Amino acid sequence: MRIQKMMKALFAAFLVVATIACEKEPTNKPNEQEKEPTLSVEISEVSATSFSFIIEATDAQNIKYLVTEGSVAPDAEEVIAEGTTTEAGKITCSELTPDTDYAVAVVAINIKKQAYISTGVKTEAEPTPMPDVTVSLRDGSVTENTLSFFISSTEADVLKWVCIEDGSRDVTAEQVLANGEEAEPNTESEVVVENLEPDTAYAIYAAATCDIEGFEPVLSEKLVIKTAEPEPVGYHLSATTTATASKSSSELDNYFIIFADEANGYTLRCDFYTALGSEYLPSGEYTLGNAAEGALSKNYTTFMFTPSDSQMTPFESGSVTVEATPNEETREVQYSFNGLLYFPNGDFVTIDFSGLVEGIMLPEPTPEIPDVPEGATVFTPDIEVKQPVRLHTPSLVPGEYYIKFYDSNWNELVLDIMLDPAICNDGNDALPAGRYTMEDGTIDSYSNIALYNPYFSENFTEAELVVSVEGLEYELTFIGTAGSGSNAKTFYMHYKGEIQDMVL
């Protein structure tokens, strides 16, 4: 009985011991496996108002961090109590105070074990504001002789600018501040530069400085502005313009016409070329160029700006359109000249002229030359004996032409031609071409013939003279009857050549 009781007591004790061992095993086994956490913190990306740090940890079930202002870091208990739970990785703190110390403390926990680390960081100081300067161009701010630009700066105590021809020299901020024009700093203002050359590139520089010790002056980016090309200047011949022409002929006919503008004082000289044998300057467009049919000679087409101008300015290009309207009855040619001629610099002259051109008239129609009448005596002038001559005697009246012809025997044929003084400049011009007769009174009855062998001296009772003129050369055909009754004789004369003293 006693032995049984002892066995029962031992068995109960074994059950108690066995129960305690089973309960402790789950508690003791994790403690045996728990590891010490590892922890590291790296600061990065520090600025005036923020910084970042990177947490790396192992064997941690929980991570907390706490950032405080100052150089003293919070301890582990404070981090655990007040910190922010996070995971390993990058954390950024922003909206911080510049130039300030901050402490970063991190705790990594693994059940009952923990790791703690702290470090410090200081935010950067705010950068000292430095001057900045700009120049800019706005639309519509450039003309031939002026330009404007806008200049502005920040944090500057002094602001100056210069405008120079682009490429003329190198420019530094110190030079601009020493020699430039002042502008109001730290605001935008417009600057206007005048009296510049047209079609020229200018460089604008601005420089700024401040009172900060050790500060280097700043220079703006170069702004290049080109002034506008000059607007062409037009010179227009007025309604008071008159035109005078002279003609010469070689391989072509050449009409040199001077347009004189009395109102403005301009003189336009135009040198037209046309086909040889033209009776007048014909219609057409005459283009400035070399001497050729239908051309306006570039060498001799010029312009004078004032009557006293000694310089005849040539043209570079252009043309003049001519419209000619001849009048067969009046022998006049009505003209219209319209053209535009350009100088090398782009300036130009316009002509819009309508009217008569002095020196251009339709030639008189060539009279029909009569045949030698049957039985007529031919009087042949001989220039080796004496050239036909116009005599100027005190007895002549205005419009009278007294001309003597001589043959090889010194016989004389005298023509006394009477013209209206209005059409021959009182007789001071050369004898005009035309047909003259005793019937219409243009051949005076004083006209006569004098032969010495056989002797015959009589005035003409009937006479007709046909005159053609080419330059200074005359072609005359004369048929006249001298004397009367059975004594009357018919004479025929043809002469081609100059007449001495025809023009006074």
What does this structure look like?
The chain has 3 helices and 35 strands. It has helices at residues 2-33, 76-82, 173-179; strands at residues 38-44, 51-58, 62-69, 84-86, 89-93, 101-110, 113-122, 132-136, 147-154, 158-165, 181-182, 189-193, 201-209, 218-219, 223-226, 234-236, 241-249, 253-261, 267-274, 284-289, 295-297, 302-304, 313-314, 317-326, 332-342, 348-361, 377-379, 389-391, 400-406, 412-418, 434-437, 448-452, 455-470, 473-482, 489-497. Strands 27, 28, 29, 30, 31, 32, 33, 34 and 35 form a 9-stranded mixed beta sheet that branches. Strands 16-26-25-24-20-21 form a 6-stranded mixed beta sheet, with no helix packed on it. A hairpin with a 2-residue loop joins strand 32 (448-452) and strand 33 (455-470). Mean pLDDT is 89; it is low at 1-30.
Summarize the structure.
By secondary structure, the protein is mainly β. It has helices spanning 2-33, 76-82, 173-179; strands at residues 38-44, 51-58, 62-69, 84-86, 89-93, 101-110, 113-122, 132-136, 147-154, 158-165, 181-182, 189-193, 201-209, 218-219, 223-226, 234-236, 241-249, 253-261, 267-274, 284-289, 295-297, 302-304, 313-314, 317-326, 332-342, 348-361, 377-379, 389-391, 400-406, 412-418, 434-437, 448-452, 455-470, 473-482, 489-497.
